[in-house]
Amino acid sequence: MIVLERAGDQDAEQIGALISEAFWDLDASQWIIGDPADARRVFPEYFIHVAAAVLGGGGVVEWTPERDAVAVWVPTLATDPEPDPGDWDVVLDKVCGPYADRFRVFEGLQHAHHPHGVDHHYLAMLAVRPDRQGQGLGTAMVEAYHEKLDRDGVGAYLEAAGPRQRRLYERAGYRDYPGPYQLPDGGPSLFPMWRAPRS
């Protein structure tokens, strides 16, 4: 059985670095920032702010004691109000510079495809350090969290970053919701997926 620890506000910087390291090579990451040098400069700072926002907003961030994998969950109620993008726009401009609009497009499409009007937990990010990928670590983390959701009768939602990730999540009980969508300008597809709670 996997052992996980709950991250706190003080861990945002380390979480951001871990997510960045795991996400460098994703097609969506390269669509947002095509220049590798800029990506290595911008993404860590961006993910630090994302982690801080989730931790400060009541999200659940779990990671391994070795700090080689992290799962970022956002509990979402059917009655939650629409988020106010004002403050976040300021963060994007400051942190992402010339790439801020790409981030806005990416996040806007994510929001448009996100389920509304139903209680669920959103797996915003599952990041495993590259040298630990493919060893079942991420799957074990997700399945451990699913046990809690199943006890509470709550569904889960995510966007798989590509066909390989989609197949992994299918094995964990996720199904297409309703199907893939493509980033503009010939960008890659993302795969929204939903997991119904198991009794």
From TrEMBL:
<dbReference type="InterPro" id="IPR052523">
    <property type="entry name" value="Trichothecene_AcTrans"/>
</dbReference>
<dbReference type="InterPro" id="IPR016181">
    <property type="entry name" value="Acyl_CoA_acyltransferase"/>
</dbReference>
<dbReference type="Pfam" id="PF13508">
    <property type="entry name" value="Acetyltransf_7"/>
</dbReference>
<dbReference type="InterPro" id="IPR000182">
    <property type="entry name" value="GNAT_dom"/>
</dbReference>
<feature type="domain" description="N-acetyltransferase">
    <location>
        <begin position="2"/>
        <end position="198"/>
    </location>
</feature>
<protein>
    <submittedName>
        <fullName>GNAT family N-acetyltransferase</fullName>
    </submittedName>
</protein>
